[in-house]
Amino acid sequence: MHDVDIAVRLRRFEHHDLVVRKIGTLSFGLYGCVAYLARFGEPDVESGCPGHQLITLLGDEEISAQAAWLAEHAGRAQVVLKADSYETQHWTAYCGGGLALLPRFRADAEPALRRIRTPTAVPGAEIWLGVHRENSRTPRVRIVLDSISDAVRSRAALLNPAEPAGTPA
């Protein structure tokens, strides 16, 4: 039996032997734990967040629009952790470790985290679905692809909420 690889990622695939499609967009915001903000104060995003701690993604500096936004708006903050996942960033921010760019669908629902008002919106990330070309028309694979796509699209308002730039909920 041939293994089937289906992948979902936050940037377009670069392999030519894949069939890919964009299935949505994921919104991000800059967050800090309520206790962290009480201790360090509101960050001055327009001045680069001096005096604040920052949690970033490991190896993301050269590839993501979110990392470029963070470098521009929080470049004076001290990077205290380079995490290998959004999950690690989320829990580190939740525990008061610093400011982090997090997916809004999750962080907005967390009472201990507060989205920081920003002068410009944090860029979103496109959600891409990919499968090996030779497997893309297999009926059981099509069912899984369509299920993933439908699940993401049905949650579009949650994953990419519409609101004016920089306006926290």
Task: Name some characteristics of this structure.
single chain; 169 residues; alpha/beta; D-Maltodextrin-Binding Protein, domain 2; 5-stranded mixed beta sheet; 3-stranded antiparallel beta sheet; 6 helices; 29% helix; elongated
Layout of SSEs?
Blueprint (H helix, E strand, L loop, with lengths): L5 E4 L8 E9 L1 E6 H7 L12 E5 L7 H9 L4 E6 L2 H9 L4 E5 H4 L5 E3 L9 E8 L6 H16 L1 H4 L10
Parallel strand pairs: 4-5, 4-6
Antiparallel strand pairs: 1-8, 2-8, 3-6, 3-7
Can you characterise this structure?
By secondary structure, the chain is an alpha/beta fold. It has two domains: 6-25 and 125-159, no CATH class; 28-115, Periplasmic binding protein-like II (D-Maltodextrin-Binding Protein, domain 2, 3-Layer(aba) Sandwich), CATH 3.40.190. The chain has helices spanning 34-40, 65-73, 86-94, 104-107, 139-154, 156-159, and strands at 6-9, 18-26, 28-33, 53-57, 78-83, 99-103, 113-115, 125-132. The strands form two sheets. It has a five-stranded mixed beta sheet, with helices on both faces. The longest helix has 16 residues, at 139-154. The protein is elongated, with a radius of gyration of 18 Å. 27% of the residues are buried. The mean pLDDT is 90.
What is the gist of this entry?
The protein is α/β, with parallel strands linked by helices and 169 residues long. 29% of the residues lie in helices and 27% in strands.
